[in-house]
Amino acid sequence: MKIKERLDTLSDAIIAIIITIMVLEMPIEVKNGEINFADLFQTIGIFIVSFCFVANIWYQHAVVFAEVDEVSNKIIVMDLILMMFLALIPAFTRLMTTDTVKETVVMYGILYVIIIYIFRGIAKAIIHQKYTEKSDMQKVYVAIYGKHNTETGLLMLALIILGWFFPKIALVFFIIIPIRSFIANSADNSEFTGVSQMDPKGTEAFLKMSQKDREKLKPLILTLRREMAQRDPDAWENFTEDAEEALDVSEETILRWFHRYYEDFKNGRRAGKGHDRVAGKERLGRQDRK
Fold first, then answer.
1. Does 180 lie in the same domain as 76?
2. What does residue 30 show for φ and ψ, rounded to 5 degrees?
């Protein structure tokens, strides 16, 4: 087994243990036949926040590591350090929410920032390992991760300062941020996968797009991937039509950017013919004639 696969297995196991401990440590008790619902809801709230934070890191970790077949010693060490600090999240979350004072809130904020920047370093190292040109590596990193992580890091630093003076206000933001990140995470990381499917010219063109155009492209990529997974024979045609209209580019340009997606689409379409010959044959015939 490759060292990268073993690292993935170890990271998944550590995260699974963290989540298991989070559940086992939930102090749900029945005293004299009664449940203290205030404590129950507080405990559940702590679990939800911790789970969203850990699940968000797991998802980002899985997406980024899927882009490489081998990892360097530097990435291995950084990933192990990331897991070490991530394991502290449930305890620090409980400490902050059960005793909301400036010290506990600031400690949580510092741990949050440490984890963010360690993961940012891992993502940067992987992107540098995947792309050969320094200019391309920097542009891809900034376009996909740099801006998001920088804004998050600055926000967390501001919340740490706020937490020192107004801990209960900072607590509310510390609870909201992991949940919001968890919900938004899939769309953010789909952009990374989309860029990795482009050829070099497609990547260059993507990086020259305005932020507004990139935001238009992301949901189209998500829709394409979903329809391809469902083996929709009209997936590619729908994608190119929507992309042409949204970005004002030609079908040839879209095909050049996403030719790997197109190859996967054709392979999936051929595989799907055996499963749905009657409905599929008629629809594919209409598409091929176009």
1. yes
2. -115, 115
